[in-house]
Amino acid sequence: MPPILSQTSSEANIFPEYSIVPVLLAFLWSSVGIFAVYTQNHGNSTFSTTGIKHFFVFSSIKFQIKFRKCVKQYKSSLLTFFLIFASGFIISFFETPNDFTIPQKTIFEWIVFFLITCVFACTEEILYRYYLPKTFKYFSIGIFHNKNIAARKFFIAVGEILSILLFALAHRYLGIFAVFHAFISGALLRWNIKKTDTVVSVCLIHCFYNCLIFALYIFFN
């Protein structure tokens, strides 16, 4: 789980070093998340040979369909990325500059580092942009059903805001400005996933943004 309750500390001034435990947990969570995303409405949840074959066939077809939607809505994705980058650039003028300690790494270690960065980004997108909003939505529908449509819409909206807020608080250890920027980014990414109707787009945006930011830190330092 992200460090929502962690305190702001000197860790914010250290270039991230991923240990094996969170890396394995991230890979596990991403695998479980992707499995659930691409097997929904399939109806075959067994782990038999037939079930696994159906899963790969079904998930690959569904991924292709979602990826095509992502490509068709590329303008929305480009706009989302630009606004996230622009908001981060503006906010950076108000925060105290951090002198990151960039470790010495081999080329292979840097490749692994950026791959892990992408995995963590996808993990966050599955959690904050897919499962939490959907969970709050189904929770609200289950409570109010057709009795009170206004209240149901209200609690669905509260769930959307709460998902974005939790994503913002997950960046609390980086400081208040990082929380503010994460809130803006979370809202933009949620808008994008509703626009493109696929988690693929927000995963690509988040991965590219994180990698670009780290690459800029490395380049300018």
Summarize the structure in short.
The chain contains seven helices and no strands.
Question: What's the order of the H and E elements?
Answer: HHHHHHH
Instruction: Using the alpha-carbon principal axes, give the shape.
Output: globular
| Helix proportion range | over 70%
Total strands: the figure is 0
> What is the residue-averaged pLDDT?
77
Topology:
Layout: H1 20-37, H2 49-72, H3 74-91, H4 107-144, H5 149-169, H6 176-196, H7 199-220
Helix pairs in contact: 1-4, 3-6, 3-7, 4-5, 4-7, 5-6, 6-7
Overview of this protein structure:
The structure is a single chain. The chain is mainly α. It has a domain at 72-95 and 103-220. 73% of the residues lie in helices and 0% in strands. It is built from seven helices and no strands. The longest helix is centred in the middle third of the chain and has 38 residues, at 107-144. Residues 42-48 have low confidence and may be disordered.
Name the features.
globular, mainly alpha, 221 residues
